[in-house]
Amino acid sequence: MELHSFFNSSTSYRVRIALELKGVSFDYVPVNIRTGEHRKEAYVEGVNPSAAVPALTDGEFSLGQSLAIVDWLDTRYPEPQLIPAEPEQRARVLEVSQLISSDMHSVNNLRVLKYLDTVLNVTPEQKSEWYKHWVAEGMSGVERLLSKYGRLPWCFGEQPTLADCCLVPQIANALRMGCNLDAYPTSMAVYRHAISHPAFDAAQPGLQPDFVSP
Amino acid sequence: MELHSFFNSSTSYRVRIALELKGVSFDYVPVNIRTGEHRKEAYVEGVNPSAAVPALTDGEFSLGQSLAIVDWLDTRYPEPQLIPAEPEQRARVLEVSQLISSDMHSVNNLRVLKYLDTVLNVTPEQKSEWYKHWVAEGMSGVERLLSKYGRLPWCFGEQPTLADCCLVPQIANALRMGCNLDAYPTSMAVYRHAISHPAFDAAQPGLQPDFVSP
């Protein structure tokens, strides 16, 4: 099994955490999205028609989109299950995961920031304000959801779930970009708990083979 | 059961289609996101901590995020199942759904377009180019995925799935915004098939109680 990944991509980071939690061994295939490797024909035709990372390949099978990949891994390698089967718990996990994936991450990913830079010619200050605005919007929602429905030490109790796989990369990115996250103490408590876990540690950008320091 | 919805919200539209396909009766609770009703304290505290539409409420239970809602509906009202159980088919359905939800819709939704207008002061032409750029990026991916893995008349065969619930509102929005979609014939064939279906018809923005013409 191969994971097509970029060290600094938070969607790749989600899947790396899931693979590490499940103890599934995989080959790491670096795809440099900064230089556009994800748009090359061989990759789009042969690996991921979405032209994005991450993508998981396993023989003839190939799959893109991080949340779909974790769902597939749950079917194939059910221990530990990252999307709970119990309907209400499952709903809560998917709700937080989709909030992070759709409402927060996608507005702040590399391709959007590049568009702001190169097409709209925004200033560095405007780009930073944009980033912080969407982090604040999204984290406020996450914090309210976790305050209402969450249960520490993980987002939803004694075991990590897909919600933690999404939250940790998002918070790591926000910290790297200089966001102040003091207003989200529940989310930060989960983050601090998670990063000391061996699977979350092994998945961090700085430990990937394609890591380059900023 | 109540659906908190805005007629023109494509994420609300996804859930309306799912409810109609399953024949689940619900009360329609309009939430005007243009005037910020989704940010009012009573709504955020009592209905949806994400401060967004759609939200589904059922007695004490309340859930936001369209894909999480459809997953929950599948558990509660399994017929017809919109997220297939068979692992590979399931993976394909979730992949297309997440591509639309995360990579395409969220970059072009109302709050992002408002930010472009009011904070970055872009011109109407720049805003239109932004919208069309992300539609083209996303639809290219969807079209490649459907060409490779899809099976008409629906995205994935003889029955509609979550992928169709996501694709149809996205295409309807893109057409409304004047995008040219000639380059995506497979996606458009699914769209034309879908809109004649009674459930997809009943869910369209123009037939909702809060509809106002542009």
UniProtKB/TrEMBL annotation, chains A, B:
Residue ranges of domain GST N-terminal in the record: 1-81
Biological-process GO terms, alphabetical: glutathione metabolic process; L-phenylalanine catabolic process
Domain GST C-terminal: 86-211
Example of a GO cellular component annotation carried by this entry: cytoplasm
GO molecular function per UniProt: glutathione transferase activity; maleylacetoacetate isomerase activity
One Pfam family per UniProt: GST_N_3
Keywords, ordered alphabetically: Isomerase
Protein family (similarity comment): Belongs to the GST superfamily. Zeta family.
Name of the molecule in the record: Maleylacetoacetate isomerase
